[in-house]
Amino acid sequence: MTDLPLTFSPEVDQAMRNGAPVVALESTIITHGMPWPQNMETALKVESEIRSHGATPATIAVMGGRIHIGLTESELQTLAQAQGVRKLSRADLAACLASGEVGATTVAATMIAAHLAGIEVFATGGIGGVHRGAEHSFDISADLHELARTPVSVVAAGAKAILDLPKTLEVLETLGVPVIAFGQDAFPAFWSRSSGLNAPLRMDDPARIAAAHRMRKTLGLGGGQLIANPIPPEDEIPREEIVPVIETALTEAEAAGISAKDVTPFLLGRIFDLTDGRSLDANIALVLNNARLGAAIARCLADGQARLPIDETCPNS
Hints:
Helices cover 46% and strands 14% of the residues. With 317 residues, the protein is α/β, with parallel strands linked by helices. Catalyzes the reversible cleavage of pseudouridine 5'-phosphate (PsiMP) to ribose 5-phosphate and uracil. Functions biologically in the cleavage direction, as part of a pseudouridine degradation pathway. One of its GO terms (biological process) is nucleobase catabolic process.
């Protein structure tokens, strides 16, 4: 482990030494998801939310040939204003480290780094998945395979709603990834509480989720869990409202000949415009909500609640 190119922030290092709960955070939401200074403001809010709920945030990024597990506020500000930051997944994480470039971690890369650092819980916005038309383009996010191989519990508001959600759930089932809806039967769809699809599993308290995480390790089952946490009701854009907007954006992308890695940024930009900015407000709200649940699960794991009978809940901070 000492040979790993990991640099822990002082805050995360202390938490890890004390066995305190830690929640990993990705960095592409900072470098590729929002403009300056809103990206910095949101990053600080998410970290603050985790601290206020009894855990330590560990925002992960690659800088100077090292994987940084937790960033100081100065490092966070540097990353938030950096230009030409690479968007890293499993395929290019090692190359970025070897070249000394600055890289922001996606869901897949954050899971890898968190596992290397000994962090078991990761809170994000939404995972990637099967893109629409994937039967022709074969465009499927590496996030799905990472969930099948890396033992980190990922809290997200489902998969991004611009994706093919039925196919995404099918692939997750094929890969053996537990998909657990938190507090409801429906699989959430990022900006909306329901995708119109049922989640394969449902759990209503963090201790059960933590216990399932531990049980997978006991059974020798590889991979992590996807905890699908619906956006709060007051912040959602209902499915019947957002679906026509997504369809309009998809039609415009096809007409413009936009493809591959350019599709998602284009769609998110158009959806922002078509909703007069409500999509970004909802995005921030759901990330904060996921941070709260991630902190609760991490507390259960750190406090030993994962080994208690399943009807016992994790104590509040």
